[in-house]
Design a protein that fits this description.
Length: about 450
């Protein structure tokens, strides 16, 4: 285990440069940013990532909240992988029964909010977990409309993409998607259409959003009894780690209940300890009808997704399925992942306090930081050109990411001009402080 980053050659080193060029030649374009994040990872050790040129970086990204238990994965999960490879990795979990997916489903039902009867649908990714939620909600309610939030990210397959409203490039030329998705403002305390300071006046912000949905949408053009569900992230992830006011979901839930609308909680990025609770929605005191998850459920090993729903919503035989869902190997990996994460929840809450204090201190001292927000080990800082106009400072954000990389810290952007601070849950105080010191040096070098 390393005690600090080691930079042998400024990234991208010669091997990294060569591989990035090859990647560009053979691999489809997705979301890489070789200018600001020219990181070619060869291996991982706990909270450290080692690139192909031998540089050692501290990871504050958890590979977008997947590697919550570090790299390559936790020792107890490695043991499960080797054991299951000897026993059973895959055998049509859709057509044959196996004990492993039952164990996992039982555990997910037990740990998810609400003591009512629930069932679990298994798949391979976040977007698929959301596709299943869309289908279950439509099938159960026989209603067609969905309400989703501006700034949200729910995936990129055509159903989930129709809910996603984070960046225009994600939707450009793909229209038409699923019909009947209505987007409404999210109660972002820092940036909202009413210019309300949501930290000072959270109740006013919540009232405006609820009024927008109830009066402007449901009483003007969308028949409430045709709305199947409201889709939401408890904390918007890709949109910028935006934490809504404490009472927002309770108010939203009251509105949904009044019209018989389901509440679908997309926990793909926040579930399993990221915020210090197993599910981020536990901070907000409501019980959703459907919960979707993926990323961290995998223990950083291989894809798995899950949709947890009220048992009476179950579909009929043949209505929905997929090949790898409930795969034996990944079911046991996910089960062990949950067990290990349970032991780290206190660590997340105490380290979260250290991060919070330090980020607020940085905000005091650097005008380029407009907003700081987060919970547990899910934090973001937003860069602005001017604190009054709140104009996004994308250039500085990108520069900070690269300056941090040069000093041995891996950061990922989010929102339009924010950086997320989302280290693996297994990190300790000393390494958190090392990372935050590098973050400050990177900001200093970028302004
Ligand atoms: C909240 C949320 N939902 C859904 C997704 C889509 O997950 P996947 O990339 O596994 O399809 C993501 C991915 O970032 C996400 O953050």
């Amino acid at each position: 285990m390393f005690s600090k980053p080691i930079i042998r050659v400024i990234p991208p080193g010669p091997k990294a440069r060569e591989l990035i060029e090859k990647h560009r030649e053979f691999v489809a374009t997705t979301t890489h940013d070789p200018e600001n994040l020219p990181l070619v990872i060869e291996r991982g050790e706990g909270v450290w990532l080692i690139d192909v040129d031998g540089n050692v970086y501290l990871d504050f990204s958890s590979s977008i909240a997947v590697n919550n238990l570090g790299y390559p994965t936790h020792d107890e999960i490695k043991y499960v992988v080797t054991k299951m490879i000897e026993v059973l990795a895959h055998a049509a979990g859709t057509d044959f029964f196996n004990p492993y997916q039952i164990y996992l489903a039982e555990k997910l039902v037990k740990i998810s909010p609400g003591s009512h009867k629930k069932k679990v649908f298994f798949c391979n990714s976040g977007t698929e977990a959301n596709e299943a939620a869309i289908k279950i909600a439509r099938y159960f309610t026989n209603r067609k409309y969905f309400i989703a939030f501006i700034g949200s990210f729910h995936g990129r397959t055509m159903g989930s993409l129709s809910l996603t409203a984070s960046k225009p490039v994600q939707r450009k030329r793909f229209f038409p998607m699923l019909n009947g998705v209505i987007h409404v403002p999210f109660p972002n305390p820092y940036r909202n259409p009413w210019h309300i300071d949501g930290y000072e006046h959270p109740d006013e912000l919540v009232s405006r959003v609820i009024e927008f949905i109830d009066y402007w949408v449901l009483q003007h053009y969308v028949p409430p009894d045709e709305v199947a569900a409201i889709f939401f992230e408890p904390i918007q992830g890709e949109g910028g780690y935006i934490v809504p006011p404490k009472n927002f979901f309770e108010e939203l839930s009251k509105l949904a209940k009044r019209y018989g609308i389901l509440m679908i909680d997309d926990e793909v990025q926040m579930a399993l300890g990221r915020t210090g609770k197993m599910f981020a929605i536990e901070h907000f005191n409501i019980v959703p009808d459907i919960i979707t998850m993926a990323k961290s459920l995998s223990g950083g090993v291989a894809p798995i997704g899950a949709t947890i729903f009220r048992a009476e919503m179950d579909l009929e035989t043949g209505a929905h399925s997929n090949t790898y869902g409930g795969n034996a190997l990944m079911s046991m990996v996910a089960l062990k992942t949950i067990e290990v994460v349970e032991r780290y929840l206190d660590n997340v809450l105490s380290l979260g306090k250290i991060i919070k204090e330090r980020l607020y201190d940085l905000k005091e001292r650097y005008n380029v930081i407009g907003d700081v927000r987060g919970l547990g080990l899910a934090w973001a800082i937003e860069f602005v050109k001017d604190r009054n106009t709140k104009e996004h400072d994308i250039k500085t954000r990108d520069r900070v990411i690269y300056e941090a990389l040069k000093r041995g810290l891996v950061l990922l952007g989010c929102g339009k001009s924010s950086i997320r601070i989302a280290p693996p849950l297994i990190i300790d105080e000393e390494r958190i402080k090392i990372g935050l010191d590098i973050l400050e040096e990177a900001i200093k070098a970028s302004v």
